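ugh ok so i messed up the first submission bc i forgot one of the chains. this is the corrected input, ALL of the components this time, i swear. 643 residues overall. if the numbers dont match what u have on ur side tell me asap before i send this to the collaborators (the ones from the other lab, u know who)
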Amino acid sequence: MSPGDSVAIEDAQITSGTPPPEGAAASIIEGRSPWRLAYERLRRDRASLIALGVVALIILVAIFAPVIAALTGHGVYEQFRSTGLTPDGLPVGPNGQFLLGTDDQGRDVLVRIAYGARISLIVGVVATLLEVVIGTVLGLAAGYFGKVVDTVIARIIDIVLSIPFLLFAISLVSISKPSLTIVIVVIGVFGWAAVARVVRGQVLSLREKEYIEAARALGAGPWRIMFIDILPNIVAPIIVYTTLLIPVTIVIEASLSFLGVGVPPPTADWGTMIAGAQQIYQQAWWYLLFPSAALLITTVAFNIFGDGLRDALDPRAEQLYK
Amino acid sequence: MVRFLIRRVALGVFVMFVVTIVVFLIFFVGPGRADVARTLAGRQATPATVALVSHRLLLDRPLTVQYWHFLDGLLHGNLGYSYYHGQPVTTILKQAFPVTLSLALGAAAIWLVVGVLSGVLSAVRSRSIWDRIVTVLALFFYSMPSFVLGLLLLYIFYYQFALHGIHIFPGAGYTYLTADPLKWFEGLVLPWITLALVSAAAYTRLTRGSMLDVMNEDYVRTARSKGLSENRVIYRHALRSALTPVISQFGIDLGVLAGGAVITETVFGMPGLGFTAVHAIQSQDLPVIIGVVIVASAAVVVANILVDTFYAVLDPRVRLH
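and heres the new structure output, hopefully the right one now
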């Protein structure tokens, strides 16, 4: 974070210090929705904007991975046994032909990192969305219906949270044939409980509000109340949670691949690359360093952006974390 | 209080029961079990030998029989025998547990001290240069996958040191404390740092947030206006209540770790519970996998009960829920 950042924070402080005018006052001056206010706050947070830029760059790299492959002239699975390996069969370091060096099979590390970004982003986003959808629906149902439904769902949440996630994930992936789909499903199946707990807590406090009672009095059914009346009011924390869950999911995917139960080779994947580098990092530092850096830059960028988003959407939390 | 404890323990037992069923279903309905008999019998085995092997391991019996056999053994403290080594699973777990325990306790001590102190510093000197440095470092290590940090540490402190003739930290493996305390310590330094730094970051963030909350409370202002020294206000009054969420998180994290630090153990080649599990999974050694998963889940369940009890003792309102 840069020195200029402090200015951004203090500005945001002032904005949040004066509560947004509501009702009559607001209509006279200018109606600014909470989303608009959040956007204004986010726009002044330089660290978050840079992080967002980095995330955008990673997405572009993932999308244009084939272009990078074409520019270098190296296919993602292509093994360069004569130019990409030393006579002893070891990887070659960064040079004019292989900008980031080669891996243990003489493949271009740069091209494989670019393709690896695809797996990380796909799993990071899709598995997180799966967690959030399952967690939100179950959390809404538990919080809204209460009684038996709540007891059952709350117990399931307890159980899922008591399960040593990584051990179960490795076990599950290992008995089925490893694939991208399995990795996504396993992360989704074990990861929703934390989301459900957060959503349930939010719903429990909203359920007793007068406007919900009013909706019920008007004859709205439970589904309508849950998804039309309650859900929009908890969208902000859900969005923040989703953003902060993406880097966690990316690390889990990389960990599974690192342990050899993730997306199967020869698919290019950062975790698999780092696992391969573990065997020969003493001879090929670039093979360890560059995929590690790609992974770390991605998680740092998502975390900074997620923090910024939280501060923007929830001004009260601002003093706590920035 | 007694009623609360009974209810909480009963829930824990129920959770464990569900865990055993889930584990059992995963592995015995999965494709693994046909392969196991074939692998064990060897490449040239006749179908009859394969059948004999699977009969001995009860693999040809109905699932309910197998599950009952397993549960019966479990209740008698018998987790079965490793398919491959023929050793009792309990023996294997007993060998692996001290490794995991050494790793977990040392790392936990470091991360708790580092995390809480940096969090307090950051909250008390809010918006100072220290706060900024701590916040940036916390975010950095919070985003750091443990295998990346572990391998980078190995590259610098094992490989680069060795190149310059310094041999302090081993590249892999584990020395038992009873065998050689110094080697035990040297072998654990890098794994401790890896695990501690990654976890400390979350505690820094947690402590900072919770301290900032508490420092705004009226009773802190009262303590200050009584003329107490700032240190006393911070450490005696504010930190004490700010630590509650930290301690509850600590209990759960320690519980998870007791079941094996899968990644750290794998990176540093330490034969702890997590490492044992990864190897057992690769060789489809079902009884060992199940054993580790059961022990790991039990550790989490016990940790949860302890944390809840701790809360209930501190705050009587909790018992009502």
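quick check: Chain A touches chain B through 46 residues (CB under 8 Å). that seems consistent at least. The two ends of chain A are 10 Å apart (CA to CA).
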